[in-house]
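[Automated response] Your request has been received and processed.

Submitted sequence:
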Amino acid sequence: MHIEESTYTLTALELKALLAHASDDETRPQLCAVAFRGSCAYATDGHRMARLDGEGEGIGPEYLCPTKPLALAVKAAGAKGRVFVDAASDTLIATDAKGATVGTFAAPRAPGVQAPPYEVVLQPSHEPGHTGPVGLNPEYLGDLALARAASPLVRGPNGGKGKPPTVAIQFGASNLDPVRCTVGPWLVVIMPMRLDPSEPARKAA
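Generated structure:
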């Protein structure tokens, strides 16, 4: 993601990964959106969060962009296109792989609605003493793979064809603390869930 003044330029893959982490509940407009703030963009549905750090620094007020016009812009841009998010005019411009404009979309922010600060998702669970089994939603891990796919390729010391970056995982002091996953310019946070200890674990086939 490149940032210049009030414009955030993202690849379609980057926006696809952010949208996957936003809520689809339109009654919660603060979560059914992607937030653009300073040098990053982030989305959360309350159970996980994805933050994409960009190059450059945005200016002006935070822009909470609804998911619907973003999804339309991503579809218009195609897999190899880009989307320009103008936080000053609440406008999205989609371009294809060749840089040609293929769509312009109005994306007005909801009046009086503010994005939840992503720092809240990073806080410990404050539930000490839990020793039972926990797990991670496999769908969330699939969305983590979208962030990895949207990351720049990493070249080895001898050059050659680049490879997707490795995901670094950091667990908290409690097994209910948020799990932090770092990959390329992304930070993806997933909240663990308690498992029923009476339910037998599935064995690999």
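Summary generated for your ticket: The chain has three helices and 16 strands. The chain has a mean pLDDT of 88.
If you did not submit this request, please reply to this message.
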